[in-house]
Write a structure and sequence with these properties.
It holds the Pfam family LacI. This is LacI family DNA-binding transcriptional regulator. With 329 residues, the chain is an alpha/beta fold. The protein has three domains: 53 residues, lambda repressor-like DNA-binding domains (434 Repressor (Amino-terminal Domain)); 121 residues, Response regulator (Rossmann fold), CATH 3.40.50; 137 residues, 3-Layer(aba) Sandwich (Rossmann fold), CATH 3.40.50.2300. Strands 2-1-3-4-5-11 form a six-stranded parallel beta sheet, with helices on both faces. Helix 8 links the parallel strand 6 and strand 7. Helix 9 packs across helix 10. It starts with a helix and ends in a 5-residue tail after the last strand. The mean pLDDT is 86.
Amino acid sequence: MAKIEDVAEKAGVSVTTVSRVLNDRGYISQKTRDKVNEAMRELRYQPNEMARSLFRRKSNTIGLIIPSVAHPFFGELAYHLEDCADRNGYKLLLCNSSRDVGKERKHIEMLKKNQVDGIVMCSSVLDVEHYLHLNLPIVSFDRTLGSDIPIIASDNRMGGALAARLLAEKGCRHPAYVYRGIGGPHHPAMLASDRVLGFEEAFREAGVASVRLELDAGGADDRRNDEELARFFALHPDTDAVFASSDVIAAEVMQACHRLGKRIPDELKLIGYDDVNVASYLTPRLTTIRQPIREMCERSVELIAMQIEGVAVAGVHSFPVALVERETT
C-alpha cells in the first residue's frame, strides 16, 4: 500500500507539499497540484481520513440519529440525507436510538469522539438537555430542542386541514385521528402534534366533531394494535373516516379493518401522512399527505454547512405539503 512518502517521491515534491494538497492549505500552484494528484492516481494512494480530519479539525461527517432505520419514513429519510450529504462532500454516520435516552446519549458521545461536523436529530426521545451544550451544528427534524437550534418540518397543520377537507367533501361525519403516543400524550415538543390541530379545526369549521385514538408507543405488537383498533371501532361504530398520523399507522388501520370486515373506502375512508413508497404499494393504494422528504434533507445539509461557517439559522424551516388522493378515499 502506497504511503505519503511514495507520493512525494513520485511527484518530486516534499511530504509537506503533498499534505498541503490533501488538506487544501497554503498556496500551491496548479501545476504542483496536478503532479501530486497524478502521482496519487498512479500509486492508488488512499489518504488517511482520520489523520486529515485531525489536521483540519473537520471530518466532513454528519451524524444522523433516528428512532429506527427499519421504519419506512426514517429509512427513506436516511437514504435521501446520505445522498444529499455525499453530493456536498460529507459522509453520513447513522445511529438508531430505538427511542432510548441512554442509547441516544451514547450515540452522541460516539459522534463527538468521531469529530462529526454536525448532527441531524430525528429521534423521538424527549430528554433533550444533552443536545443543548454540544457546541456542534445541529438540525432537528420535526422536534423542538432549543431556541437556537433550527427545525426542519413540513406544514403539519396544513396537512391535517387538507385531510379533513377532503373527508368532509366525501361526506364523512364521524372522523377519527389515529396516532402513536411517544412516552405519553401527543407531546408539544413534537411538531407533528399540529397535524391533529389542523384536522380538528377544519372539521369544526364544517360543523363536525372528531375523536382521537392513541396507539401504544411501542408499535411492535400487531395483535395488540389490532385489539386497540377493534375496541375503538366497537366504542365508535359510526366512524366513517380515519386520518392516521403516518402511512405506517394507516397501514395498521387498513389491516385491522380487513380483519374486522370493514371495507375501505366504502365503509371507512382512510388518509395517511408522509407518502413513503409503501403508500402506493398497499391495496387499496393509500391516499396520503405528501411531505417533500428529499427537499427537507437537502435543506438539513445546507443548514449544517451554514452553521459550520458561523451563520445563524435558528427557527422553523417549514415545507409545504400536498394531498395525494388514491384509492382509500
